[in-house]
Amino acid sequence: MKRVFSGVQPTGNLHLGNYLGALKQFVELQEDHECIYCIVDMHAITVPQDPKELKSHILDVASLYLSVGVDPKKSIVFVQSDVPGHAELSWILTCCSYTGELSRMTQFKAKSHNKESAPTGLFTYPVLMAADILLYDTDVVPVGTDQRQHIELCRDLATRVNNTRKKTFVVPEGRYLKEGARIMALDDPTQKMSKSAENIHSRISLLDEPSKIKKSIMKATTDSEGIIRFDQENKPGISNLMNIYSVLSGKSLSDLEKEYEGKGYGDFKKDLVEITVDALAPFREKFEEIRYSEDLIRILKDGAERAGAIAEKTIARVKENFGLGL
Ligand code: TYM
Questions:
Q1: Which of 92, 236, 276, 324 could be cross-linked to 319 through a Cys-Cys bond (beta carbons 3.0 to 4.6 Å apart)?
Q2: pTM of the model
Q3: Residue 297: helix, strand or coil by DSSP?
Q4: What would the mean pLDDT of 80-92 be, rounded to a whole number?
Q5: What is the number of the ligand 1 atom nearest to the C-alpha of 18?
Q6: Closest atom of ligand 1 relative to the 185 alpha carbon
Q7: Centre of ligand 1 from the C-alpha of residue 9, in Å
Q8: pLDDT, tens digit, for every residue of 304-319?
Q9: Residue 6 is inside which H or E element, if any?
Q10: Is the CB–ligand 1 distance for residue 18 below 6 Å?
């Protein structure tokens, strides 16, 4: 069975982009893969975090994993900092990476605003991400396309180590869905939907109330043509909504074009509200059940133990191949 690894940062409420780009794949893959899903809290501290809030967000994200259908009987679910191998391998890989390749990462450039005072953790963030993946001999990494450059760096690092030393790492593949891989902001379809944007109507959070979902979708930016047609370049707003509709309903984009021929954006949006509310309602219900249950902590501790056992073996192999330790 192929092994899958992926992670989500515990920063704020997860949104529809996180679900359609990543979490939906997590659930599908666990049927015929060995899956390991992580809450990457050490990535979150690359920018300042309030300790109490971070703890609470870790449990929120873990609960959301389970609420959308990640099954701890099939998949390992754990918190990154509970397995020390991530930090250990991250340092070893830092010593194999170049400042040039890290400074070319677009997310670093965007988040550091090219300032010299940018945190070093932001700079080496993709190396920690590579360590997360390589620690588990991962074959497949389900993510949105915003992570593509980081996945490529991970592949480069694995190949570089394999070519200069004994074969040490499995070289993983990124897995990107066709329609959900890049969900755009509802208020500005040229930007990706993000947890941190100021305008709450730019995103739909997975725990949003139906009234909030309705407001955000009805306000979503479209164009003045008024025709429901998929054209990412010239009609990014309606194309983004069509993408969301398509992934949530299972209908193809061309079927949607046919179904809404002669109808306006208002009709389309009203139906999308209904579909989105129906899709998210079970997540909210389950979340309430799981978030404060004792089971949650037990699942995460058990997950850390199982992940830790795999990680220890990789660290031993890496140390051996690098000549580290006794
Ligand atoms: P993060 O926490 O920003 O996002 C979690 C997942 O959601 C996807 N995503 C999106 N997909 C479609 N449309 C969007 N608008 C959108 N926004 C976010 C992301 O691609 C991601 O799959 N660096 C990672 C976390 C990470 C990781 C890893 C992932 C750390 N180590 C190892 C995979 C493997 C991140 O910040 O994701």
A1: 324
A2: 0.96
A3: helix
A4: 98
A5: 7
A6: 15
A7: 7
A8: 999 999 999 999 999 9
A9: strand 3-8
A10: yes
